[in-house]
Amino acid sequence: MNYNKNSLNEFLFIRFQKGDELAFEHIFKASYNQLVGFCLQFVNNREEAKGIAQEAFVNLWLNREKIVKVTGINAFLYTSAKSACLKHIRHLQVVKKYSDSKLNEIEEQLQIESLDSLDLNSMEYVELNELIQQSIQNLPEKSRMVFEKKRFEGKTNREIAEELGITIKSVEANMTRAIKTLKANLTEYLPLFFVLIILS
Amino acid sequence: MEEIILYRYLSGEASEEEVHRVFSWVAESGENRKELIRLKQTWALAASAAEDGEKAWDQVKSQLKTDSPRITLWLSFIKYAVVGILLVGIGAISQKLLTNKAQETIYAENTSFEVPVGQMSCVFLPDGSLVHLNSESKLSYANDFSAGNRTVELCGEGYFNVQSDDEHPFVVKTPGKVHVKVHGTAFNVRAYHDEGKIHTVLEEGSVSLIDNIGNELTKLVPGDKASYSAETNKLTVSKVRTELFSSWKDGLITFRNERLGDIARMMQRWYNVEIVFDTPQLADELYNGTIMKNKPIDQILEVFRVTSSIEYTITPRVDKPTLIYWKSKRK
User: How many domains does chain B have?
Assistant: First the structure.
């Protein structure tokens, strides 16, 4: 089931604001997996990522009267998730990815920096999903398929290669192309998205 | 650096040897570091998990409190009507007012948001707190904000909804001698330079007013309005209907016995016009009523004409704000 496409329309938004639980359920199901996916990049623990995402939704419900427009929902969710992920990383609760402690140290810094410099206020002005959809529509067929398998089904490169009957190298090349396009598009639409202050 | 290795790193499928290579590439230049961070951000924003949404929903549902909305039925109806009008596009509401982003400037030590004349904006702070900024307002905070120094500076008017965090108090500094210390709450602060007064209205939670060195002057309870006058150096606290003071954030302005002169000053700020009164007595007349701020100025002027004793003329001018002339009907 794919709830993602443009499901957050204005009508739903008004019902949500007025405290309609069904509308909220719809919003939840449309964005939950994406928010978990976002958190998972930073906390490296599935249960924790789910916990953070669920808490963000509960906060959203409690603050629903204060969200002024439909794109404010994503901005709110990601801002909540961002704070929670940062807190989590700073309290050193992240499961270590690498056996080399030096690598873990650098990884942690990069994670904090990536979260910190994410300008989520810009998110209020554009629908993230639409932007991603638009970007991948313009990709060559194969890149798009690879990207969707990765993004929605969370498959490994090997699994995707086997399913599509191509080499792992080709999967990687196609994913690289998809990410490059996305990066360019996100930057173009959100000029403030990646304003960075490098203090290294 | 081979792009494929960067991708492998992002997807968590790189070997430690490859991660080593990525990190030494990152250490080579600030440009490389920036590039990797952009990639990580893109990757995170485009990510999606494949969890069971139904199961997660059941867990979340059990945590929702079904509290009834705090706003009165009447106000919520109006709110609904405002959104409805926006939807069908009747009334030529200037949507620019709602959607224009505050100009953001980022400095090494400071982040600030400035809202131009006639516009409103909404800003999320790094801790998840939400601030609605009214026309011609400026909000700034130091970049150690996310590290726990939750101090913002406000010049103008803002409606705050602050995330509670007992360890890190949230402080709103104003250009005057009175500041607001917050304990997790929703409130409105109005501190425009040209008004000589600082008004704080508390909707829910609790806030303290503090002086320049942080001493508590008084603590407010919900429904309180504290006004500080720079002229008399006095602080007065009174009970008010709080929604009258924060309704601007929803695009609704309610006036209760406000001087036309004061209303004109606000309108000059919202619409970037100049309002001139025929006689000083007219400026002292009191007005009651509610207007929808997001409507064009000519519609607002029409509302005033119908509901009060004033008539108006509009004179557009080159290089200067449009001139509005208000005179009394009774003559």
Answer: 3
B14, part of any domain: yes
How far apart CA A129 and CA A71 sit, in angstroms, is 11
Of B189, B221, B246, which residue sits at a domain end?
B246
Identify each DSSP E strand in chain A by its residue range.
none
The tokens for A82 are 């961002």
Residue B56: list chain A partners with CB under 8 A. 28, 32, 50, 53-54
Q: Please give the residue range of the domain that contains residue B282.
A: 251-328
Structure tokens at A102: 């030096």
| B234 class by beta-carbon count within 10 Å (0-12 exposed, 13-18 middle, 19+ buried) | exposed
Q: Cα distance from A93 to chain B (closest Cα, Å)?
A: 17
| Predicted confidence pLDDT, tens digits, chain B (331 residues) | 788 899 999 988 899 999 999 999 999 988 888 889 888 888 888 888 888 888 899 888 888 764 433 333 333 333 333 332 332 322 223 333 333 334 443 333 677 888 877 677 778 787 878 888 887 888 988 877 877 788 899 988 888 888 877 778 888 988 877 888 887 678 888 888 777 788 888 888 888 888 887 788 888 888 888 888 877 778 888 887 777 777 777 777 767 678 888 888 888 877 888 999 988 888 888 887 777 777 778 888 888 887 778 889 988 888 888 899 999 877 5
Domain boundary among A125, A160, A178: A125
HSE on the CB side for B116, CA within 13 Å?
11
Q: Which of residues 42-81 of B touch A (CB under 8 A)?
A: 42-51, 53-54, 56-57, 59-61, 63-66, 68-71, 76, 80
| ipTM value greater than 0.85 | yes
